[in-house]
Structures are given as C-alpha cells and as structure tokens.
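BUG: 3D viewer hangs when loading the predicted structure for this chain

Environment: internal workstation, default settings.
Expected: structure renders.
Actual: progress bar stalls at 90%.

Input used:
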Amino acid sequence: MAAPQDASTRPLCIDLDGTLLRSDLLLESTLALLARRPWLLLALPFWLLGGKARLKRAIAARVAIDPAQLPYDERVLALLREEPRRHRVLCTASDDTLARPVAAHLGCFDEVIASDGQRNLSGRGKAEALVARFGERGFDYAGNARVDLAVWDRAHGALVVNAGHGLARAAGQRCELLGHLPATGGGPKAWLRALRLHQWLKNLLVFIPLLASHRFLETEAVLLSVAGFLAFGLCASGVYLLNDLLDLPSDRQHPRKRLRPFAAGTLPLLPGMVLAPLLAVAGLALAWWAEPRFAAVLAAYYLLTLGYSLRFKRVAMLDVMLLAMLYTLRIIGGTAVIGAALSFWLLAFSMFIFLSLALLKRYVELSAMLAEGKMSAAGRGYGVDDLPLLQSLGGSAGYLAVLVLALYINSPDSVALYARPQVLWLLCPLVLYWVSRTWVVAHRGGMDDDPVVFAVTDRVSQVVGLLCAVIALSAI
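Structure tokens produced before the viewer hung:
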C-alpha cells in the first residue's frame, strides 16, 4: 500500500516489552511457569529447539497473566490517548496469546501484530511485518532496544522509550526522531532496595550463639560469626530477589509490596534472574570457606527458602512453621560456624518465639488486606476471617517461648553457665511485656510487614533488648 505522509493519519506502532510495558512478557510468563509448575522448566530447551516463537507460544499456553496488574509506562499510555485519530498498533515480539489481552484491557489499540508460534516478530522480522502491512516508511514506531534499529531503518519516525541518548541518536540517523522518553527510576538505590539490605538485620541472629556461649571475647569466633553473617546476607539477598521475581502477581495486589522494584517495573527482570543464583553461590562459597558444617546449614536454609517461594508459602500454617524454621536455622548456623554445642533450650526458645513472629507477619499482611477491603491475601492460604485465629496462636507461641526461658533459668545448664542464674528471672517479665506489646502494636495497625525488622528498629524493643543484655551480663 502507499505510505501515508500525513502524520495525523500515519499508523503509530508501539512495542510492548520495555516500551509500553515496564517489564517483559516472556520473562514474566517464564517466572509464572516456574512459580506454578517448576518441573516444566525442563521442557524449555526442547521447546526452544523449535524456535523462539514456539517457545513463547508453549509458555503462554500454560500460564495466565493478568493485564490489569502489569506495570505500564504512563508516558506511553498518555501518548496513545492523545492520538485517537491515528491507527494505533500494538506490535510486539511477545506471543499473540498474551499480547491481545493487554490490548483489550487498555482499549486504545486498533490492531495487534505479534508472534504467533511460527514467526518471532523481533528486529528484522518485525520490520518486514510492518512494511508488508503499511509500506516502506509508512509508519511511526516506538521502541526501546537496539534490536529495534532494524525497524527504525524502515520507519518514517522513531519514538525512543526507556533507553539512553545513544540509542536515540542511532534511531535519529535512520529516520525522523519524533521524541525521546528516557528511562526513569532504577539505578543503585533501586537495586539496594531489591537486595533488601535492611533485612540483613535478621542475620544478626547468627551472633546469638556467640553471645550465649560467652565466647564474644574470642577473636577467631567473632571473625567466623562475621563471615557467617555475611554469608547469610548474600544468600538471603539472592533469595529475596528470587522471591520477588516469583511473587510478582501477588505483590502487585498488595498495598505496599506493589512498590517493590520488580513489581513496579523500575528494575528489569533479566538481571535479577541472573543475580539471584550468583548471590546464593557467593554466600555458599563464603560459608564453605568459614566452616563446611556451616555451609551445610546454609544450603538447607536456601533449599527450604526455595521450597517456600515455589510452593509452601501458599499452604496455611505450613508457611509460618517454615518461616520460624528459617529464623531458627540462622541460630543453628551461628552455632555451627563457631563450632559450639547446639543448645536444646536455645532451639526450643527460638522455635516458639519465631513462630509467634511468623504468625505476626501473616497477621499484619491480612490486616493490610482488610484495610484495602479485600477478603484474602493474594498468593497466601489465608483469609481475613483467620485474623482472630492467627492472633490467638501467635500470642500463645510467644508466651510458650517465655515458659521455655523460665524452665531454662531453673535448669542445670543455666547453673553451669551463670554465676548468678537467679538474676535471669528478670528476663521473663521483660520478654512477656515485649511479646504482648508487639501484638498490641500490630492489632492497632502500627507495624510494617516484617516483625523482625520492627523488633530491631523499634525504640521500645531496643530498650528491652538493652535491658535483657544488661541482665544477662549481670548474671555471668
């Protein structure tokens, strides 16, 4: 057909992944497949043998992506709405099965041109499809990657989105540069947030065996504990990345988690998918260097966390038991890295107190859902009707931890380790107060999603912790 020259009638073709969408549907669908049916990942190489288009169709046929929850670039949406007279085309390398629901949801496209299981509409393939449909130089095209240069070679105008000035200059050398919308967000701050370095506070639990065994004046034991802290931190950050990548749909329905970098589209998915296993390997390597038995504990932590992310977090009660176990594994790891004996009392106290905190975490999440008018937490096995039950079980678990502490104080183990074990009785009312107060704060809506981080950063909790430390030192 003849190429139209009037800009108001020239078709406006918009790329999907990375341009209209601050994400990538192939990666989103692959992660959805991993989250729901991980065993099918073994089939990916065989699907790829039939070509990339077949791979995309095979994945798309097995997952469901809700277009209403995807992170769109509002600047591109505004551009589409400002051009109602133009023929607007969604032209994407993503599979047609996923692209059409996006176009239907947005309601601002007149046509969809996408991969169909036979043709992979990327680069030159997309350029040829657009030229066949609208003619040489007969369309304007918005894209975001160097592969789009092949399209701009044959387009009339280029709109460069979420890319640097270098790509904009290259596009302008091939056709008329209509506009440049640089990438927003991302950067080091977004990566630090995705790695959740503040969550490394949980890994301070590694130092508890060092303190409980009174070896905090031994230089070697302190250095090994520091190595254990760093190893847990690296492995945990890898787990957080993986968990955020697998939890995209439910995070986008959460009032606060929807702002996480991957869910919000401020960070690209592919680097996160690469960095997650690299961090885990680095943590395990450091753990092996420090103490092979500690590496075994860290490996168990990683495998349990992987199972939690893939499946168990959706199973009511099993999820909180695993969360409590993961906290306790940090203490077991701290014991292993310094070669100390594993204390029955410390394990029992840890399991109950962390079960209380795990139930508190779910209680806070459900309370947030209730405040949003929702009846259940997406991706979890609970509804808002479970709030009283979680509150009852969580408070009981916290009080059982205090009972274990009281029994320990009166045990031969305490007498052997402390010169004045009777002083330790002062710990019981302090811990009782702290457990009760955390549940009151949560009940009144004053707690964030992670009670352990709250416990470390809350001023009252800090004072209680300091008093507990003074009491313990006084008993030595």
